[in-house]
Amino acid sequence: MKERMKKLCWILLFTLVVVNGFAVQRFPKPEFETAYLQPQTHQPPPRAELLAVTDVVVLFLALAVTTWLVLKRRSRMGVFFMSLASLAYFGFYRQGCVCSIGAIQNVTLALFDHSFFIPLTVIAFFILPLIFTLFFGRTFCAGVCPFGALQDLVAFRPVKLGSRLNAVLGMIPYVYLGLAVLYAATGTDFIICRYDPFVGIFRFGASFGMFIFTGTLLLSGIFIARPYCRFLCPYGVLLNRTSRFSRKHLTITPAACIQCRLCENSCPYDAIDIPVTGKNPMDKQRRMRNLIFIILLVPVLVGIGGWTGARLHETLAGVNPKVRLASLVMHPESYAGMAEPFEITAFRSAGKPVAQLYAEASSVLGQFYTGGWILGGFLGLVFGLVIAGRMLARYNPDYVPNKGNCFSCGRCVDYCPVKATTNPPS
């Protein structure tokens, strides 16, 4: 009896499976008199999580291989081919996402908004390059970042810009980083992703404006090597500062420098510090005066910068959706004679009290006021440190890479006539 019941259960189960496979929809889809179309049912791709883990593994391996090529093999050709592989994978295959540069915004928003979920993949892409940079220099820029690799391909005739122009243009990434953090922290926008010049190229779908912007960058990159990396990239600010503490870093020569000056013009990024050895009895007194001047100047610059940023908080907050909507509601004359903005139409349809909107906009303005003080003070501090770096230049007897600005690309290594007989120095 038990055997018959077991067979009957198996027969019923098999019948249900077969019938379900050939089943038709019992109740037909509703017919609408409008032009409404029944949406297609989409199932999340099963490889999404696996691909995210794969991206992190590939990033780690790319960083490890590039670091080995830079510090051990000292191979410019190896770094070049590694950058091409990264351009193919992280650029055109993964279409520039996940991006270590854009991850700044995700991490910032997660710190200020605990309801925001940040994937572990994004955290890994943000942290791993910084960890490698802390120990080995900017090897991420050398052969892993697809943005840098794409710009390297067009650097045919790079020219020197000079230390002063480099210092002035080098302030722009700090401004960009500060604005990106401010807008992400207030939940306003992800401006790094919105104005990313290369993702549209990787996805073959850039808007006309971004196409012009990217084209301008690449055309200028023929003469100004890596213009985005040097004068725009906000993640480069973090890598620059982290690399200054690196325990190991690319060296031009594996042994003692022979002062041949062959490497002097080899770096297209102006990242090689030339020897500064001239000394006289007045140097110590002059440096002391300069140090006192910097100590007095930096707090003044921080205060002026913070005050200026706070005065600009309404302008900076103007792009926030809540602030913009509140401004339109408060000043209907701003769109008089034109079609009503869709934000106003949506707001009226939602039935949200105007007082609540004004309260939310006021809260956002308060956040921008505080953020303006911090942003301005931060930029004042950076400007003061730039001045200090120029006035308190350290003496160095040899040609050495600037640990902050050097991309560890290895070009200078090929120009050095001194070849390693043992392992290169750490």
Concise summary:
With 426 residues, this protein is mainly alpha-helical. It has 20 helices and 2 strands. The N and C termini lie far apart (81 Å).
Structural account:
- The protein has 426 residues and is mainly α.
- The protein folds into two domains: 56-277 and 399-415, no CATH class; 283-391, no CATH class.
- The protein contains 20 helices and two strands.
- A two-stranded antiparallel sheet has the order 1-2.
- Mean pLDDT is 85; it is low at 15-34 and 422-426.
Write out key terms for the chains shown.
about 425 residues; mainly alpha; 2 domains; two-stranded antiparallel ribbon; 20 helices; about 60% helix; disordered C terminus
The rounded distance between the terminal residues' Cα atoms is: 81 Å
Main-sheet strand order equals 1-2
Structural domains: how many: 2
Query: How would you classify the helix and strand content by structural class?
Result: mainly alpha
Number of strands: 2
Report the uncertain regions. Answer: 15-34, 422-426
Mean pLDDT: 85
Global morphology: globular
Approximately how much beta-strand content do the residues carry?
under 5%
- The radius of gyration is 28 Å
Order of helices and strands: HHHHHHHHHHHHHHEHHHHHEH
Number of helices: 20
Largest sheet: 2 strands, antiparallel
Described by its quaternary structure, the protein is: single chain
Helix content estimate: 55-70%
